[in-house]
């Protein structure tokens, strides 16, 4: 049995339904953050240039669309592990290069929120979609239809 199957079996046995609330909140916050970056793309580009010293517009839009797509997938509970895995390096980059220079106690610091998002991404990378998700609904419908 591979590590992926072991993690999936453990998560299926230890995934309470109330955890879906946090998955939906995480997905919604990532989705809204992506839309916020999109609506303020010039300020986001300036932030990317000042933080990463890379003046590539395609990177800005890659981060924006990854936030939107991963947030949507996590929100509805489809491919949650994959979306979390893709989102984790982006949030780590935001913590290290964007928020860490301001500090925790800076006015309007998003460092604590980014750390919370990172922790939730790790949790849902391990836990997966959960019992209350479209993926679980699809799996149960297919199983009942095949019987």
Write out key terms for the chains shown.
single chain, 147 residues, mainly alpha
Describe the structure.
- With 147 residues, the chain is an all-alpha fold.
- The protein has one domain (3-146).
- It is 78% helix and 0% strand.
- The protein has 7 helices and no strands.
- The longest helix has 21 residues, at 19-39.
- It is elongated.
- The two termini are 26 Å apart.
- The model has no long low-confidence stretch (mean pLDDT 85).
Contiguous uncertain segments of 5+ residues: none
**In which range does the helix fraction lie?**
over 70%
Radius of gyration: 17 Å
From the helix content, strand content and strand pairing, which structural class follows? Answer: mainly alpha
Major β-sheet profile = none
> Care to count the β-strands?
0
Structural topology:
Blueprint: H1 3-13, H2 19-39, H3 41-52, H4 57-76, H5 80-99, H6 111-127, H7 134-146
Brief overview:
The chain has 147 residues and is mainly α. 78% of the residues lie in helices and 0% in strands.
């Amino acid at each position: 049995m591979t590590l992926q199957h072991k993690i999936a079996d453990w998560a299926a046995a230890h995934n309470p339904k109330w955890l879906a609330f946090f998955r939906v909140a995480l997905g919604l916050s990532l989705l809204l953050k992506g839309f916020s970056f999109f609506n303020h793309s010039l300020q986001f580009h300036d932030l990317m240039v000042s933080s990463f010293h890379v003046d590539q517009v395609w990177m800005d839009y890659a981060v924006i669309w990854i936030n939107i797509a991963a947030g949507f997938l996590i929100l509805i509970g489809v491919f949650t592990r994959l979306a979390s895995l893709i989102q984790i390096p982006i949030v780590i980059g935001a913590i290290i290069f964007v928020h860490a220079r301001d500090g925790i106690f800076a006015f309007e610091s998003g460092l604590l929120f980014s750390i919370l998002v990172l922790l939730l991404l790790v949790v849902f990378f391990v836990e997966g979609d959960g019992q209350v998700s479209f993926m679980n609904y699809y799996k149960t419908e297919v199983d009942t239809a095949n019987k």
